[in-house]
Specification:
InterPro entries: IS1182_transpos, Tnp_DDE_dom, Transposase_InsH_N. The protein is an alpha+beta fold and 482 residues long. The chain contains 17 helices and 13 strands.
Amino acid sequence: MSHHIKGQPRHQSTFFPEAIDDFVTEDNPVRVIDMFVDHLDLLDLGFETVNPKLNGRPGYHPSTMLKLYIYGYLNRIQSSRRLEKESHRNVELMWLLERLRPDFKTIANFRKDNGKGIKNVCRKFVELCRQLNMFDDSAFAIDGSKFKAVNNKSKNYTPTKVQAHIERTEKSIQQYLSQMDTKDGDEKDIDTTVSTSKLAWLEQRLVELKALEIQVNEHPDKQVSQTDPDARLMKTQHMQRQVCYNVQSAVDTKHHLIVEHDVTMTTDRGQLTLVAEQVQKTLGKQDITIIADKGYFSRNDIKATQDLGMTANVPQTDTSGSEKKGIFNKSLFKYDKDQDLYICPAGEELPHRRNVTEDGLEQKVYVNFYACRDCDIRDKCTRSLKEPRKMRRWVHEDEIDAMQQRLDDNPEISVVRRQTVEHPFGTIKMWMGSTHFLMKRRKNVSIEMNLHVLAYNTEENDDNNGDSWFDGGHQAIMGDLA
């Protein structure tokens, strides 16, 4: 006799609940999705077919499709084919869609055709959180992360790579020609059909590569991705190279919600002001605090954020390369703010001589010709036999110094940044799986990212105790919507 728990016979008749609503508990997340979408003005947000045409076959309402996608991305189901399958067997989706079962093509077309509306819904959720005062007294950590595109590295070409392919192909052609000449001189009757076919293929490939070389050299970024033209070859973790997109995000340090994000095709440098300014617009206030890593350090960017009323915290980078050259680093030259001069490692004063403009920055030049000429440790200061060592200082460097002092006095700022902004990237990549994006081109990739961010924000923890947002936070949303 078995002591295991036994199931019911599959052919036994059962009485299901009278309403499918009985299968969905009161605190089920699908109820939040349903109420949230029903309270949105989809026409105002930019969704198509809200007001359908009177002629032709009726279509699904945008609210139905939006609910399906929010549920899908919230439950790691991004594929349109898998969403179609789930609508046939998933009780929660049966409740949410009122037993509608759209086909995968309809599902995919909705996502492709309603990028503007989906982005506005993502912002609408952040706006709702702002109305609930969730971003009060918060700083915002900004960072970028590389997400793999639908483009294999072998289908990405740079000038160096395409030249290597051309040389290899030309070498192969020469080898086949040599082999065919050898066979022609042989008395034996040898079939050269295979060699001729291979040679023709190589010659055609060489023509394609030379056309590709022209295309690569004419491209502004000097690279061409054949599968996804918008994707770019970038350095990722451990200095590896991968064809990807660089997703920028701003995350609040209080609730770890993604307040603003953008899909870019460049590195982090130069993105600080663009992302931070969007955060200001989203929150409707100027005096915000932003934190970023040294990859964002740019004097123009930091000055711009401070001019916009923000407090920036970005570690300064040292790119002088003096230590590698075996000479004194700039950090060994001490600046005297009161006298506006530098004191070199030999104890000599370098006064301000003139101003110059380099790379769009107005800089003050400090130099002491006579002291440098007769200095005993000159060889440790400069490699030039004629020119003395010069110090350059940006005219707004005092603001950079104040920011660096703030970071030195509060070392926990960098820890807060890592704990805040790196968690969302790791979570979303885990949801995506090994392939990351499913769609091609930046426009479509941005739509995917909007859905992932919306799903992440709705499920993000309300505190650090592991309690889900839906364990309590959804009550506030439902109450506010009601």
